[in-house]
Specification:
The chain has 5 helices and no strands. By secondary structure, it is mainly α. Helix 3 crosses helix 4.
Length: 106
Amino acid sequence: MGFFDKIKKIGIFNGFSELDDDFYEELEESLVMADMGAETTMEAVEELKKRCKTEKIKSIEGARACMRDILAEYLTGNVEVDMSAKPAVVLFIGVNGVGKTTSIGK
């Protein structure tokens, strides 16, 4: 089960009707349980709080869209790997079940 499958399974955005401290605490816990990592989770939730405040987002649907944008920004980093050395060695690290072997095969 991949990262996004875990987030969908948890369904954090389904159980709340307002953006309050309980919502943000539950979101943090759910993202950590989905293997996002504590530091990245804290950064993402703080960014969500900031954007919800500056963009005056009050609904759960708005917060979901905003969190989707934040996570997409994290995943679209422009990282280049120097493969000029022959043979090139690449180390893949990740939690079990996140798709390392599948990605390498592709």
